[in-house]
Specification:
The chain has one domain (about 1-40, about 90-190). It is about 15% helix and about 50% strand. It contains 3 helices and 9 strands; from the N terminus they run ααββββββββαβ. The longest helix is centred in the N-terminal third of the chain and has 18 residues, at about 1-20. The model is unreliable at about 1-25 (pLDDT under 50).
Length: about 190
C-alpha cells in the first residue's frame, strides 16, 4: 500500500510542477484564477459474484448500483459482502496569464495510475493533468472581449468575466490553463463484530 500512495503523491507533484513551471514574478501582476471541487462517495458491497466479477453496492441514499469489475481490478477475491467501497474524486482548474518570453502556444498531458499489490484489498489511484497554453491575440476593452490563439492555430473570442483583468493583460501574453483530475478508490473490510 505504501507504493500505491507514493505513486499517487509523485503523480500529483509532477502535475503541480508542470503547472508551475512559469516565472512567478511575471505572474504577480497578471490575472489568475483557480478553483477546485472534491467529492467522496461510499457504498456497501451488497452482493458479489467472484466468478462473473459482478458486484452490487448500495449507496447511502439507498440506490443500488451493479457493475462488472474489469480484469484490471486486482484482488477482487478479497472483497466480501459488507465491505465498504470508497471513491474520492478531486478536480482543479487554474488559469494564469503570464508575460510571454518567446514561448509558443502548446498543450501537454501527464497521467499516472497505481493499484494495490497482489493479496491486498483492491485499490486504485489515478491522476491526470492537462496543460494548455494560448496566446493573447487581441484585447478589446470597449466590448469587454479578448481573443486567444490556441496550440492548433485557431483563434477564438471570449467575453471577460472580470473586465479589470483585461487591463492587467497584454497582447502577446500567454494564458496557461491547467486541469487536474484525481481519483482514488479503496475497499475497506467490514469491521468485525
Amino acid at each position: 500500500m505504501k507504493k500505491f500512495k507514493y505513486i499517487s503523491i509523485m503523480a500529483l507533484s509532477l502535475a503541480t510542477t508542470v503547472a508551475l513551471a512559469v516565472d512567478e514574478d511575471a505572474m504577480m501582476d497578471k490575472p489568475s484564477f483557480s478553483a477546485s471541487q472534491s467529492m467522496t462517495i461510499s457504498a456497501v458491497v451488497e452482493a458479489i459474484d467472484h466468478e462473473t466479477r459482478v458486484v452490487t453496492v448500495r449507496k447511502p441514499d439507498g440506490e443500488a448500483v451493479t457493475f462488472t469489475a474489469s480484469d484490471e481490478a486486482r484482488n477482487l477475491d478479497q472483497v466480501e459482502v459488507g465491505d465498504v467501497l470508497i471513491a474520492e474524486y478531486v478536480e482543479s482548474v487554474s488559469i494564469d496569464v503570464i508575460a510571454n518570453e518567446g514561448m509558443e502556444a502548446g498543450a501537454a498531458e501527464v497521467a499516472a495510475v497505481a493499484r494495490t499489490e497482489k493479496g491486498e484489498m483492491p485499490g486504485l489511484a489515478a491522476m491526470g493533468s492537462t496543460v494548455v497554453t494560448a496566446t493573447v491575440e487581441e484585447i478589446n476593452l470597449e466590448l469587454n472581449t479578448f481573443k486567444l490563439k490556441g496550440p492548433d492555430g485557431t483563434i477564438n473570442e471570449y467575453a471577460a468575466r472580470n473586465p479589470g483583468n483585461l487591463k492587467r493583460a497584454a497582447v502577446g501574453d500567454l494564458v496557461v490553463i491547467t486541469v487536474t483530475e484525481a481519483l482514488a478508490i479503496t475497499v475497506e473490510e467490514q469491521p468485525a463484530d
